Amino acid sequence: MTRLPLSCFIIAKNEADRIAQTIRSVRAWADDVVVVDGESSDNTVQIALREGARVITQSWLGFGGQKRFAEDQCRHDWVLNLDADEVVTPALKDEIIALFSDGAPSKVAYRLSLELVYPGAGHPRPWARDHWYVRLYDRRQVRFRDSPVHDSVVTEEHAVGNLYAPAYHYSYRTFTDLKRKLAGRMRLSAKYANRPSKPILMARLLLEFPINFFKYYAIRRHFTGAFKGLRHAWIHASYRQLRVVYMWRNSDAYWSNCGLAAHGSGLMTESQPNSAIGSTSPAC
C-alpha cells in the first residue's frame, strides 16, 4: 500500500497497554507516525519504537502545548492527531485515503467522530456518535490552541469538513480509572476557570449534577449502554459537580488573599468523592 503524505502524531504517557493498537491502526497507510512521550515510567517508548513510530520525549507542556509541540515534530503539513487510547477503524482509514486520492483535500480541516468503548466491551454502544472533533488538518492553516486545559484545534473562519466513519475511543480502563482521570481534569479546569460570585457558584452546585446527568445519559445517549452507560453518566455528573466545589475553594483562597473573604465553605468533605482535592492561591 502506498502511504499517504500524512503525519499521525500521538501524545502519550504510561500507555504501554494501549498504544500498540493505536499505532497499528495507522502505520500501514500514514507515511509518518510520531509519538511524543511525556516521560513515561512504563514501556510506552519501547513499544512505540517496536511498532514503527518515531518517539520524542518531552516533559508535560499542558494539553494544548503538548499537542502543539507534537505538531512541530511532524514531517508532513497534513496531520492526523490521535490520542494513545484511540483507534482508527478500517472504514475511517478508507475514508481518509479516498480524501487524498486526487491530491491534498479540498478543505483545511476535517472533523471525525470518536465513539466511546466502555471497559470490557469490544465495540461502542448503539448510537454512540455524540461528539465530533477536528483531528485531520493542514497545520499551516490551523493548529491546536495553546492552552493548559483545552486541546482543541482553532479553525476560525475556515470551512471544516466531516469524516463520517468513526474512530474508537478506549478512554478508560476501568471506572476507577475514569474517576482518577476526571479528578485531575476537574481540578485543572477549576484552577483556570473564571471566578463567578458565590451566589452563582451556589446555584451551580445545586444544578450541576442533574443538568450534567441529563446531558450524558439522555442527550449523549448513554442510556443505550445499559448499566455501564448509567455509571458513565453518573460519574461524569458527580465530577462536574466536584469541579464547582474546587472553584468555590479556589474562590475562597483568592478572596482571602485579597483580605475580602472568610475561609473554606465546608460544602463537601475531602472524601467525597476524592480525597486529593487541590487548591490554588492566586495573587490578587
Descriptors:
284 residues, alpha/beta, Spore Coat Polysaccharide Biosynthesis Protein SpsA, Chain A, 2 domains, nine-stranded mixed beta sheet, two-stranded antiparallel ribbon, 7 helices, 11 strands, 19% strand
Structural class label: alpha/beta
Characterize the biggest β-sheet.
9 strands, mixed
Q: What is the CATH architecture assignment of the largest domain? A: Alpha-Beta Complex
Radius of gyration: 20 Å
Principal-axes geometry comes out as globular
Question: What features would you describe in this structure?
Answer:
With 284 residues, the protein is an alpha/beta fold. It has two domains: 4-169, Spore Coat Polysaccharide Biosynthesis Protein SpsA, Chain A; 175-257, no CATH class. Helix content is 37%, strand content 19%. The chain has helices at residues 19-24, 44-50, 63-73, 90-99, 175-192, 198-219, 226-257; strands spanning 4-12, 30-37, 54-57, 78-83, 86-88, 109-116, 132-138, 143-144, 153-154, 160-162, 167-169. Strand 2, helix 2 (44-50) and strand 3 form a beta-alpha-beta unit. Helix 5 runs parallel beside helix 7 and helix 6 runs antiparallel to helix 7 (226-257). The protein starts with a strand and ends in a 27-residue tail after the last helix. 35% of the residues are buried.
